[in-house]
Amino acid sequence: MDIRQLQYLVEVARLHSFTKAAEALFITQPTISKTIRMMEEELGIVLFARQGRSIELTDAGRIIVDRAQEILNSFQNLSGELDDLRNLKRGHIRIGLPPMVGSSFFPKVMGQFHERYPEITIRLFEDGAKKVEIDVQEGSLDLGVVVLPTVSEDIFEIFPFVEEKLNLIVPPLHRLAESGEVGLQELQDEFFIIFREDFALHDRIIKACQGAGFQPKIIYESSQWDLISEMVAAGLGIALLPETICREMDPERVVIVPLVDPIIPWKLGIIWKKDRYMSFAAREWIRLARRGLQQEKGDSSM
């Protein structure tokens, strides 16, 4: 067996599909099917149980995939370390950002990094915080920004950089627009416009409402905070959004009301995997982000 065969095996196991694995690896399905068949013949075991179009790892296959993943991780770490030695300050970084976060916190960091390291490329992947966390854990992202706490905090290094709370936004003629503050229970008869289920705030808002004694009536879900704001302005419902996002809104189109009883916190942090090799580029980006975000936090508190 070689590294290429192990990569094919792990990808089929991850995606539970020969077709999807072939597409992800940019090869043909017959090629990947033949490779897996050759591995089974070489090892004298069946790696996948095939039931129609569905495939699942056998017990033996699960053992092989676990060991294959360890070998691939070691190989990737070795390759990364050698690349750093060869290229020093060249490379690329894969960063996951929730759509509402990037424009608010990172343009200055991105600009400083590019000015200092113009040969390093950055690929940004915009997804909800839950998806970003999964992708960092699985290795398809080097680092990401998520809503804290994470599901698996023990496997990540975490740099928290903002702690705010959610506010209520309503259209100007809404019954609560003149309120100095509002309790969550007062919203039980309202129609909610919230982020999609791959966003951490989706579950957090629903759980907070349930804790207040009601199931929220969700009328729309979106991945874009500006669309949510526009739908609120159009009178389609109400929304709960972080303070940073609320500051970006047109006060003539929506009214921001502090939410109390309970206060719903919104904490953000940069995460990366503890046991994975970090390239020079990723380490340097984290260093600049730490410094820049800490400076901004200090300036805003003055």
UniProtKB/TrEMBL annotation:
- Protein known as: HTH-type transcriptional regulator YwbI
Q: What is the lineage of its organism?
A: Bacteria, Bacillati, Bacillota, Bacilli, Bacillales
Similarity annotation? Belongs to the LysR transcriptional regulatory family.
Q: Name one Pfam family in it.
A: LysR_substrate
All copies of domain HTH lysR-type, residue ranges? 1-58
Assigned keywords, A-Z:
DNA-binding, Transcription, Transcription regulation
Q: Which organism is it from?
A: Paenibacillus physcomitrellae
> Do you know which Gene3D superfamilies this protein is assigned to?
3.40.190.290, Winged helix-like DNA-binding domain superfamily/Winged helix DNA-binding domain (1.10.10.10)
TM ranges: none
